[in-house]
Amino acid sequence: MSTINDVALKAGVSVTTVSRVLNNRGYISEATRAKVYKTMEELNYQPNELARSLLRKQSNLIGLIIPSVAHPFFGELTNHIEYYAYQNGFKVLLCSSHMDPAKEKDYIAMLKRNRVDGIIMGSHTLEVEEYRNLNSPIVTFDRQIDNEIPFISSDNYQGGVLATELLISKGCRYIVHICGNLELKMLSNYRNDGFKDTAEKHGVRHITIQTDMNVFDQQQYEQIIQRMLETYPDVDGIFASSDIIAGFAVRECLGKGKRVPQDIRIVGYDDVNMASWFIPGITTIKQPTEAIGRLAVELIQQQLNGESFEPDNILPVELIERSTS
């Protein structure tokens, strides 16, 4: 097996130069950098990542824990986080917890063993103590678990206001909000507060229907919407807390003979790619997913560098109107 000394000898440079190329430290000309990389490829040299991380006390790894990589919103968020992490010299270890606290603890232990430089947490379980006790930088998404730990969220309250104001302006007088389980204490719960306050302000009938604790179980969406349409046949507006729920709502309404948007108007949340592909296109509240991913990486870097950072990061949302309203 080739060593760093072999690479230096064949490339005609010092071991220090090879080390600088590997760690992207100090000035190295592009010609020298290209020569070192070509030599490593020829010798099939594989640097010892663990040894390098111990030496520089930084692994250049970020752990990302999300509820489900299969969910379109978290898939798109992961894509942006990975992009900006890589642009800044980090690689991402992705952990999909599936709402299982035991699995989440196992992932946290694994990330500790791999000496990650920081963790971005999008957990939706009720367990948070494991995160409070971490001795490395952490950023949370849509959840505030400690005054000292920075969090990022979209302006959920304003999102609820925008969605409800739109439905009311279109003539809706009986609106339902289908949301995740409010017991989870997520910052996304503020969408429901914005919904209720706006509906009450305008004197509009309204109800909130929650999912069970497994908020990303799509099989329950169909049943929830079917029951809602049977129990509340006069509902003429739906505010769904995700575009996935909104998509199910469109399908079930059409299946019941209700025209969208003539008989019932629907607004989703997130603005994932499928919202624009869907027929009819889903009106939705756009979360700034790319900005969230970029900021999450920046907050990890700021903590690593000992820089000051903003603990509360609430980003603006935008109403995207399409055919369901």
TrEMBL record:
Where is each HTH lacI-type domain found?
Answer: 2-56
- Asked if Transcription regulation is a keyword of the record, the answer is yes
GO MF terms listed in the record are: DNA-binding transcription factor activity; transcription cis-regulatory region binding
- Keywords for this entry? DNA-binding, Repressor, Transcription, Transcription regulation
**PROSITE patterns listed in its UniProt record:** HTH_LACI_1 (PS00356), HTH_LACI_2 (PS50932)
Q: Name one Pfam family in it.
A: LacI
InterPro entries, per this entry?
HTH_LacI (IPR000843), LacI/GalR-like_sensor (IPR046335), Lambda_DNA-bd_dom_sf (IPR010982), Peripla_BP_I (IPR028082)
| Name under which the protein is recorded | LacI family transcriptional regulator
The species is Paenibacillus zeisoli
